[in-house]
Structures are given as structure tokens and as C-alpha cells.
Amino acid sequence: MYHILFRITEAVYLITVIGVIVVIISENRNPIKTITWIMVLIFLPIIGFVIYVIFGQDYTKRRFMSQRMYSKIKTRPLAELNTSELVHSPSKYIDLIKLLRNSNQAHLLYGSSVEFFVTGKDKFDALFSDIEKAAQHIHIEYYVWDDDVVGNLLKDILIKKSVEGVKIRVIVDGVGSWRVKNSFHEQMRSAGIEVEEFMKVKFPMFTSHVNYRNHRKIVVIDGRVGYIGGMNVADRYVNGPSWGNWRDTHIRVEGKGVQGLQSVFLIDWFMVSKSLITARKYFPPLETYGDNFMQIVTSGPYSPAREIMQGFMQ
């Protein structure tokens, strides 16, 4: 009897493992990850299956928006932009431009002013100055926003602008900012600021989807000034960590490039709030700054293609 039950259990497990392997292959994952999970399932019977159930299944991806909705949000606000610049773009970049446009709906944006920052102090001085000048709206998303000196300075200036009537939307990541108490965000909400958390998790240290996080650091002010780069909101980006200096890069953008940043933010805002924002007031007419081109390309689980990696490989 026990022998028969063992054989039945063995057969069920084998069928299950084969089914899981078929699913893994059909999901078109990174080949290295695919091979790794198959090896785990084959050489770690039962234990390997348990590990896959906890850490390997892509529950998160199923919660993201459809590809149709993603394309609608990304292309609708930019549909009226002038597309003739493609003809005048440098010929050696034509293939790359077309690749990113077709795979990521990344419009070619002509005439932006770009200022680089390599120290946190310079970046935050410029950012706070631009926020002070905001008249209509401020959109902010950061992976890390700490409850420290720099974090509170940004919070306080946003509360001040909200009281003045500026519309403010904030996205923070559920893992990157998990140490921050709810009261920190509630202070902003009480002042009329909309604050949303990207994929909140109960146990950030043990989440099985660490890679499905929002690592973006984007600020858009009145649809005219934008910030993007590697610096989060934390004292260490200004003062450095205890073991040395912190070296990172951030850029300030004026001109058409801001429209690309705005589009990215509004896609993420729909993801966290289910609020669709495509009004033209968020994409005002902008001046042209210099003879240059920009494409804002995103990566993430919204689409099956790995656009940034493909761009580097082009």
C-alpha cells in the first residue's frame, strides 16, 4: 500500500515539476534565470519546488497594467508632438532611435537643456530652488526617501507649496523607503499632497520580489523642469556615508526632454493609484534649447522586452 502511495506521489510530483518547467520556459525569462530554476527543480527534489513557490513565481507581474493600457498612457500625451525631427537626427543613431521608439514608445525629443550634478549639495540646492518656483504642479518619485535632514527639508518645502495651492503627487517605493514611519507620509497627506506607495510589502527584508521595485528618481515641476539620475533623498548623498564619500550623478532637464519624464511619471502614477492623467496642461508648449536629441527609455515589467539592454546592445 505504502509502495503504491509513494509511486503515485512520485508521479504527481514529476508531472508538477515538468509543468512548472514548461511554464518557466514559456515565460521567456532571462536565460540564466530559466536554467537556474530548472536546475533547482531537478537537483533539489521537493525542497527546490518549495523554493520556487516562495521565490520564483511571478505574482507581481500579473498585477501590472496591460500592455495596451501602457501604450495608451505613454503615447496619448505625446501624440501631438512633432515627429519630423527623426528625419534630421544623426544618421548613425537612426537604428537605435527606431529600436527604442518601436519597443518602448520612446519619442525623439528635440532641444533640451541638460545640467549635470555630481554632488548631492548642488543637486538639492537646485531642486529646492526650482520647487520654490513651482506654480501649478510637482510630481516626485524616489526609491529611497529617508526621514532625515534632507528628507524633512524636501517634505517641508512640499507642504509649503501645497498650502500655496500647487498640486503635488508623490510616489515612494515600498522597499526602498520601508524604514520611514507612516506618520512621515501622513504629514504630507494632511497638507493635501497625494502620496502613493509603489507595491507595499509587509516584510520588505523577506519579499520574494525585491527586483520588482521602483528605483526611479524623477521630479517634474510644472511640466517644464525635470530631474533624473542616481541620487535618492537621504543625508548620505550630501554628507557621504560613514566609510567615505558618495559619488553619484543627477541631471536637471529643461525643454522637450521633460515631456518624456512626465510621461514616465504618469504611467507609474496610474500603476499606484489607478488614476489616468493625460491632460494637455501637464505637457505645456516648451522652448527649444540647443541642437540636441533625447529619448526617455524605461525598463521594467510593463513590457516583455528589455528595452535598455537592447539599446546598449544595438
Q: What do we call the CATH homologous superfamily of the largest domain?
A: Endonuclease Chain A
Tell me the number of helical segments per DSSP (H or I, 4 or more residues long). 12
Average pLDDT figure: 81
User: Rg, please?
Assistant: 23 Å
Total count of strands:
9
Structural class computed from helices and strand pairing: alpha+beta
- Strands of the widest sheet, in order across it, are 2-8-7-6-3-4-5
Morphology call: globular
Give the helices and strands as they follow along the chain: HHHHHHEEHEHEHEEEHEHEH
The amount of helix comes to: 40-55%
Brief characterization of the structure:
With 314 residues, the chain is of the alpha+beta class. It has twelve helices and nine strands.
